[in-house]
Structure formats: C-alpha cells, structure tokens
Design goal:
The chain is built from eight helices and 21 strands. It has 377 residues and is an alpha+beta fold. The protein folds into two domains: 228 residues, P-loop containing nucleotide triphosphate hydrolases (Rossmann fold); 141 residues, OB fold (Dihydrolipoamide Acetyltransferase, E2P). The strands form four sheets. A six-stranded mixed sheet has the order 6-7-8-3-9-10, with helices on both faces. Strands 20-14-11-12-13-21 form a six-stranded antiparallel sheet, with no helix packed on it. A hairpin with a 2-residue loop joins β12 and β13. α2 packs across α3 and α2 packs parallel to α4. The longest helix is centred in the middle third of the chain and has 16 residues. The protein is globular. The termini are far apart. 40% of the residues are buried.
Length: 377
C-alpha cells in the first residue's frame, strides 16, 4: 500500500518535464529534494490530479487514480504560496474540508482545535486571513491540509515563507508528526539542511528524473553521483578539475593515491564541500592549494572565504582553468584582505571523485584515499 508512480512521463511543448519517474512510496514521510526546475512541483501536481501525465500510472493504496479528477482523489496539497479562503475565519478555513467530508460537529471542532494548536495559531481562530501575518496565513493553509482525511498529503516547500526560528520549530514537530502518519506524506524542498533535518527516506530529483533514492544521511556521506552531491550541498560544493589514472588523482598541481583510479588516465571532477576546506594545515597528508583571496563574506557564525587558486599552480591538468574558484567555510568572524595570498588545505579523504563524462562516483572506494601526498608536475 502507499503511493506508486509507474514510469511517469510528461512533456510541455516538446520539452520533457518528467521522464520515467518510477517510485514506490510507503506510508510516512518521504522527502523530494532537488533544485528549482528539478520537477518536484510538477510531480506533485501529477499526483494530485492537477496535471495528467503523458504516460505512466499513479496508484494510491493499490487503486489506479491516473484518470481521476482532483475531487475524486484522496489527496491534500499545500503550496509554497499559501492559499486560504479570504472571507472565512481561521477556524472555518481549517474546518472546510472536514465539513465536506461530513464529520460530526463535535469531532470536527476537536480536530480543528487540535491542528490549530499544533500550528501555533490556536488563539487566532476567529481572525480572517487579511488580519494575519504571512507566516500565520501559511500555518493556516498547512493546518487545513493536515486536518483533511486524505490518503496522500503533498507539501511543496511549505516552510519557505516562515522565519528561521519557526521553520526549525515546525520542522521538528512535523518530523515527529509524520513518522507514523498512517498516510503518504511527500515533502518537497530545495534545501539540503531541511532534508537532512528530517532524516527521512529521500528522493533526489534532477531535470525531471529520479537521480537516486535512499537514506539521506548515507546519500550525503557517500553521494553516488555528482548531481546528488550538489543537491545535498549548501553552500554549493566546490568542483575542481582533475585526472585519474594508475591509482592516483592529479588536481591543480597536487596528486594523491586513490585505489579507485585504476586504469588509463581519464578526466574527473573532484567535489569538496566548503566546510572541509581549511586555511592552515590540519594533518600531514592534507593537500595544499596556494591561492589568492577574492572576497570574505562574514555572516557572524561563519566566514565564507572566496579564493582563486593561483594560475602557476594549475599544473598540467587538462581542463583546469587559470584561477579556479574555491570557497572555504570558516568558523566565526575572520578578517581577510582581497588580493592577499592564502593557503587552502583539503584532507584527501574528504574529496569525492566523479567521472567527468558520466557524473558518477569513480569507484566505491575512490574517496578512501591512501596517504602519500605529493606535488604533481
């Protein structure tokens, strides 16, 4: 039982929006993760019946609902942009789907007040949407969907319009609420931190295709392909050009042992997350990349240091542009002057290695590098 998407395809004016999407989603929370344009909202609209696919089937609890209208599907949908009935109070907005289902008055009242309490809007039940803040309106819209007795609940980036503190609070509450929800809950987000925070089964989407599914923590630690590593990295992962062959990786003037780099030389892309780039050697085996400071972004809790690897250190790596960009996420407030020299250090075991042609991880053990760092060239 649950939600099954069987080879869903959808195109618009000849452009594929969804291609071969096949998923078997059980009850409970599942996260759809991907950047803007990945197909998250389009896929949800297909599940809801707002858009009919060109091919494939949608099954809910074993029943094929592909050709059914929106009203006949047991699906509730919460959009990023909140939608409420402006003439109704908060109470009536939340109660509206319950009244349509014929729920007895006493049970309806208890359910409305329970959901309003969960959303933190219990004191606002007599107000209308125009009297609410944007965050309160979004919580009302979420509450209406939560109250509805639907087999599938779709939430399309529902916390995007809320302040940080409330997002963190609700995220924790939702994770607990949806763990044993007794229905399918699909939560779409473009934020890696949100997906990781839920620690729920995750579907990574990219350009209308399913890139990978699985435990989000495992996908973060061992991304099977570059697109998955990018989707789970915020700030964006650093991408560096390199060459793999004969058990070694060469990149921007340095090289290191990598058992996965067997065989003839071939171009690869190395991925390093900003928080794994240090200014100062931490371990003897760290790779050293002499660079120049271009910009220091200070947020208070962190400093994002934008670096350019010096041209003379680019070595003979094919495809390595002069001045490769590198970002280091450093703790606290740190001061740097644009143009000053800097030395960036990366632990080889923190480096992901992807085949530049296929985008897939070079080998399962490609990041389990051996010691013995040396200067290449």
């Amino acid at each position: 039982m649950g939600l099954i998407l069987d080879d869903i395809g959808l195109s618009y004016r000849g452009e594929p929006w969804l291609s071969g999407v096949t998923l078997d989603i059980p009850s409970g929370l599942t996260v759809l993760l991907g950047p803007s344009g990945a197909g998250k909202t389009t896929l949800m609209r297909v599940v809801a019946g707002l858009v009919q696919p060109d091919s494939g089937r949608v099954l809910v609890n074993g029943s094929d609902v592909t050709g059914m209208s929106v009203r006949k599907r047991s699906v509730a949908f919460v959009y990023q942009q909140f939608i409420n009935y402006p003439s109704m109070t908060v109470y009536d907005n939340i109660a509206s789907p319950l009244r349509l289902s014929g729920m007895p008055r006493a049970e309806l009242d208890a359910r409305v007040r329970e959901v309003a309490g969960q959303m933190g809007i219990g004191r606002l039940l007599d107000r209308r949407p125009a009297e609410l803040s944007g965050g309160q309106q979004q919580r009302t819209a979420i509450g209406r969907a939560l109250a509805r007795p639907a087999d599938v609940l779709l939430l399309d980036e529902p916390l995007a319009n809320l302040d940080y503190k409330l997002r963190e609070q609700l995220r924790g509450e939702f994770a607990e609420m949806f763990r044993d929800a007794g229905r399918v809950v699909l939560w779409a987000t473009a934020e890696p931190a949100e997906a990781l925070g839920f620690a729920a089964p995750t579907v990574v989407l990219g350009e209308g295709r399913v890139l990978h599914t699985g435990d989000v923590g495992e996908l973060y630690r061992h991304p099977p392909m570059l697109a998955v590593a990018a989707a789970l990295s915020d700030p964006p992962i650093n991408l560096l050009p390199g060459v793999a062959g004969n058990g070694r990786i060469a990149c921007l003037g340095v090289s290191f042992d990598a058992p996965g780099a067997r065989g003839a030389s071939r171009p690869v892309t190395l991925g390093v997350r900003p928080h794994q780039v240090a200014i100062g050697r931490r371990r003897p085996e760290d790779l050293e990349l002499p660079a120049e400071v271009r910009l220091a972004e200070v947020t208070g809790s962190a400093t994002f240091l934008h670096l350019v690897v010096r041209e003379r250190d680019a070595g003979a790596v094919e495809g390595a542009p002069a001045g490769t960009h590198l970002v280091a996420e450093l703790p606290g407030t740190q001061q740097f002057t644009p143009g000053e020299p800097a030395r960036a250090f990366v632990d080889p075991s923190d480096v992901f290695v992807f085949d530049r042609t296929t985008g897939r991880v070079l080998a399962e053990d490609a990041t389990e590098v051996e010691m013995g760092v040396e200067r290449s060239g």
